[in-house]
UniProtKB/TrEMBL annotation:
InterPro entries: rRNA_ssu_MeTfrase_G, SAM-dependent_MTases_sf. GO terms for molecular function: methyltransferase activity. The keyword Methyltransferase applies. Belongs to the methyltransferase superfamily. RNA methyltransferase RsmG family. Keywords: Cytoplasm, Methyltransferase, rRNA processing, S-adenosyl-L-methionine, Transferase. The keyword Plastid does not apply. Its EC number is 2.1.1.-. It is found in: Cytoplasm. GO terms for biological process: methylation. Specifically methylates the N7 position of a guanine in 16S rRNA. This is Ribosomal RNA small subunit methyltransferase G. It comes from the Bacteria.
């Protein structure tokens, strides 16, 4: 890794940089062969994936209950868990082989993170994860579907933080009505990490309607794990 990128990574991860480097090493060694990242991604792992994911930590309040939907290779969930050990984080992933990968990483890195197999739209998953403060998602689905899956997991006033690319504004315009129907309010596009990334992370931020009520809107205590 170039010295300049390493310096930026240390700024983002601070005292937890070594764990971030260990996760990068795991992805470098196993990511391509296990179908988690493409071959061309290895050389830009820090800038495009780890830092791109970790910088959204600035949007997450202290001690938040966070669900990373469709966690896949562990992005953005694992960089967030490393950078912010105060978070109560669940990695939600439907594919068995990726659940195995996430479990291996959590154990190898010594993280206090829950790995759950399932889909956000499934009843048992909603029952278990409802009332969360934040739901994150990266390269999972178009915004209309993402809102329908993720907003029911949030408490009223909770945030969907969807990492998007250049199409963010276009998606938000196209899917604004679907987001509203799903209970989303105050949708907007923002960027994170402008001080450490050459290309800041583009995020669509949607809040769950404050008027949402019912059992899936109740706040749960941090569970003992």
């Amino acid at each position: 890794m170039a010295e300049e990128v390493e310096d930026r990574a240390k700024r983002v991860f601070g005292d937890h940089y070594e764990k971030a480097a260990a996760f990068a090493a795991l992805l470098t060694e196993h990511g391509v062969e296990r179908g988690l990242i493409g071959p061309r991604e290895v050389d830009r792992l820090w800038e495009r994936h780890l830092l791109n994911s970790a910088v959204i930590a600035e949007l997450l309040p202290e001690g938040s209950r966070v669900v990373d939907v469709g966690s896949g290779a562990g992005l953005p969930g694992l960089p967030l868990a490393i950078a912010r050990p105060d978070l109560d984080l669940t990695l939600l992933e439907p594919m068995v082989r990726r659940v195995a990968w996430l479990t291996e990483c959590v154990e190898a890195l010594g993280l206090d993170v829950t790995v759950l197999r399932g889909r956000a739209e499934e009843g048992p998953v909603r029952d278990r994860l409802s009332g969360s403060d934040v739901v994150t998602a990266r390269a999972v689905a178009p915004l209309d579907r993402l809102a329908g899956w993720c907003l029911p997991l949030l408490r009223p006033g909770g945030r969907l933080v969807a990492l998007k690319g250049e199409s963010a504004e276009e998606e938000l315009t196209r899917d604004a009505e679907a987001v509203r129907r799903a209970g989303g309010v105050r949708p907007r596009v923002i960027t994170c990490g402008g001080d450490v990334l050459e290309l800041p992370t583009t995020v669509v931020l949607v809040e769950r309607d404050d008027q949402a009520s019912g059992r899936d809107g109740s706040r749960r205590r941090r569970k003992d794990r």
